[in-house]
Amino acid sequence: MTKTGGKISVIKLFGYALGEGAVSITMNGIANFAMLFYTQILGLSAGYAGTALSITLVWDAITDPLMGHLTDNTRSRFGRRLPYVFFGGLVLAVSFFMLWVLPQHAGSARAAFWAVLLINLLVRTAVTVFVIPYTALGFEIAPEYNDRSRLQGIRIFLNQAVNFIFGACAWVLFFGDKTAEDGSRIDGTLVEGNYFVMGAVLSVFALLLILGSIFATRDRAVDNRNEEMAGNNLKAFLTDFAETISDRRAIIVILFFTFANLGMMLVSQIQMFTYVFYMEFTALQKTFVHGGGMIATALAALSVTRLIRRFDKKALSYLGIAISMFGGLILFVLFSGGVVARDAVWMLAGKEIPIAVILFGIGQALWWGGTGIVVPTSISMIADVSAVHYAESGQLKDGSYSAIFGFILKLGSAVGLLITGWLVDWAGIISQAESQTLEAINRIAAATFLSGPAVMILALLVVSRYPLNRAFMQEIDHRNQEKD
């Protein structure tokens, strides 16, 4: 048993969270730019691109429970988690680079589809090998009710801080606008070579963050070869899976975050088309709006470390959902409702103030700020559920609970990618087109504003059934510390 008691230093938590920065670079890199790359550079239809990505997510989901069982039952000189974190992280960085390079040389749309599918399968396998043990490691590092929320808040803060640098600022760093011979503006996301540069830079930084996280948590590389092992055979795995998936408390948390994540995925994928075709943002404006959402997410996640002292986790979830829904709905009223023109400016002291850009950024910040509360709170909830299971059974299953969480989540994400492709096709967005019809851009904007809030209603209904509270968990944590 490797859980430890006592409050953990912020430095230790940030050191662990460096690994989340690598997850942010790779997963947000795909979320932010993959659909644009596949449709506008490779020429795939949004439906085919969404299908390829959803298939790989299903594979990712299937492998998560296997990885959870494997890491829980691994005995090695360096413990049950860090060996997988190292090797999975290495493959993740390399395969992420390949994602932006190899499909461009496929030669045809059909070959590009298969290249996208196969390379994404490799990326998702690496994600499983890295993330499941990494997440379980976090459960073990933070064994106390408040610390679990502190760790997840800092983890999401790092995720979005890195996402701001390499996601929001990517518009300026990698996708700056260019000028055509006739003087017209060429959007940087439509230039093929920009994706190669982005892939190379981001892969290097992802690897550095992974190595930094391993170094910060090297004290967890404890020889556990003498610990009793339940077994890694198929029967043991199926038994483990059945026990975990039948935990009602876990199912509530998993479904809660599945719906919340579906809303986040729909908005994150569709909003890129809204930036480019509906609002016609410049590269700097994209950075302002996109980056504002990331900063809001990061600050909200960091605030969870303070908010958790005042609110129980269910109430905190309500707060996050309410803020997110308000942000999406206000954007719909302002822009789709015709209250503010897409190019509206105010004149102040002889200078133009791009009020449409500012209001759009505020709405985006509210949506993503709310999710910045929801995400770390939900992950800390599944850690609480795992702690309850340990208190009741004496079996450590942090890896299995982490894996089941990922399993259901990714199945939902696969559905989300399919829905995204259908929504983009429904809107009438045409692949590799420099401009879109007015009807198409109005539809894609409405989908951006309303899809997230609609799904968040389901998340709200599910989390209302969450049974655990602070008083109960403090008793559980006390029992577990006595057991250790």
Q: Low-confidence runs (pLDDT<50, min 5 residues)?
A: 1-5
Mean pLDDT: 87
Class by helix and strand content? mainly alpha
> Structurally, how many domains make up the residues?
1
Structural commentary:
This protein has 15 helices and four strands. The chain is an all-alpha fold and 484 residues long. It has one domain: Up-down Bundle (Growth Hormone, Chain: A). Strands 1-2 form a two-stranded antiparallel sheet. Helix 9 packs parallel to helix 13, helix 11 runs antiparallel to helix 12 and helix 11 runs antiparallel to helix 14. The longest helix has 39 residues.
Summarize the structure.
This protein has 484 residues and is mainly alpha-helical. The protein has helices at 10-41, 46-72, 82-99, 109-141, 145-168, 170-173, 192-216, 234-245, 248-278, 283-307, 313-336, 355-393, 398-427, 438-463, 470-483, and strands at 178-179, 185-186, 346-348, 351-353.
Provide key terms for this protein.
484 residues, mainly alpha, Growth Hormone, Chain: A, two-stranded antiparallel ribbon, 15 helices, 75% helix, 2% strand, globular
